[in-house]
Specification:
single chain, AA-Vitamin_Transporters, mainly alpha, membrane, transmembrane, transmembrane helix, disordered C terminus
């Protein structure tokens, strides 16, 4: 596939993740964050394992559980801590720092060059998310701040290492391994820290089905597929699509007001995402052509 197609498919993942807040608040019982994370990750991972019929080799187990922890167990736990202790706008703005962290980690882990315009695009995107979501009620709880930054760092590390550790299997199998590992890590935490879920009604089951089948199995397959094909700095910028979708759904579905400042923030975010794709475009082909011309001269 062409790079624009890969970008569009990968962008679907964070765009769909933007529905998580709406589904969680409107369709799921409150007060069970870790249990709901288990029910989102583990059944989806086991389903994909049944479909792919591909288990990780023993040599890959350590890497798979490390990625499952970074991309799911640690990330989702810190995400919920930040969401509980901070206004949603503050938590989302801290989460958007992931793009900057990826740029730094990719330089150290993958040797990817740091481009000044890429850093500027990421900073502009963070500013756009802040305009989109921050309000006068924004509060700075220290634990929430640490959790928000830690969650962004966990997902950033998982993204970079998922690019570095590419097993010789399709992206769907790689997604199944990570979701299952993340769910297994979270399962004992949920059993120890949270009470049993109350009886679930049809709306609860529908919400869990959406978050598991679409918000986990489908979207993380698209995400890890994109991580393997798109430059780390470019793919990390796509994560900023999530707060844009969340605000749009709040406006369309819940009737929440959308101020001109928020609309400006959405435009800035979308613009920074586009610039991030252009700036982080691979330059290897151009260098190879130049080198080939020099050798033939």
């Amino acid at each position: 596939m062409t790079r624009p197609t890969d970008i569009l498919l990968t962008a679907l993942a964070p765009a769909i993740w933007g529905s998580t807040y709406l589904v969680t608040t409107e369709a799921l019982p409150p007060g069970y964050p870790v249990t709901l994370a288990v029910l989102r990750a583990l059944p989806a991972g086991l389903l994909l394992l049944a479909v792919t019929r591909c288990l990780p080799p023993r040599a890959w187990l350590g890497r798979v559980f490390a990625l499952g922890a970074l991309n799911f167990a640690i990330f989702w736990t810190l995400l919920f801590v930040a969401a509980y202790r901070l206004p949603g706008g503050v938590a989302a703005t801290l989460g958007s720092l992931q793009a900057l962290i990826v740029i730094g980690l990719a330089r150290g882990v993958l040797g990817t060059p740091v481009r000044g315009m890429a850093v500027l695009a990421a900073l502009t995107g963070v500013a756009g998310v802040a305009l989109l979501l921050l309000g006068p009620e924004a509060a700075l709880d220290p634990i929430g701040i640490v959790a928000g930054i830690g969650g962004a760092a966990s997902m950033a590390a998982g993204t970079v290492l998922s690019r570095k550790w590419q097993p010789p299997v399709p992206a769907l199998s790689f997604t199944a391994w990570q979701l299952t590992a993340g769910g297994l890590i979270l399962l004992p935490v949920a059993l120890v820290l949270e009470p049993p879920l109350p009886p679930l009604d049809a709306a609860n089951l529908a919400g869990l089905a959406w978050l598991g089948l679409v918000g986990a199995a489908l979207t993380y397959w698209l995400w890890f597929r994109g991580v393997a094909r798109i430059e780390p700095g470019a793919v990390s910028m796509l994560g900023m699509m999530s707060p844009v979708t969340a605000v749009a759904l709040g406006w369309l579905w819940l009737g929440q007001a959308l101020s001109p400042l928020q609309a400006l923030g959405a435009v800035i975010v979308l613009g920074s995402v586009w610039v991030g794709q252009v700036i982080n475009r691979p330059r290897l082909r151009k260098a190879q052509v130049t080198s080939g011309r020099a050798l033939s001269a």
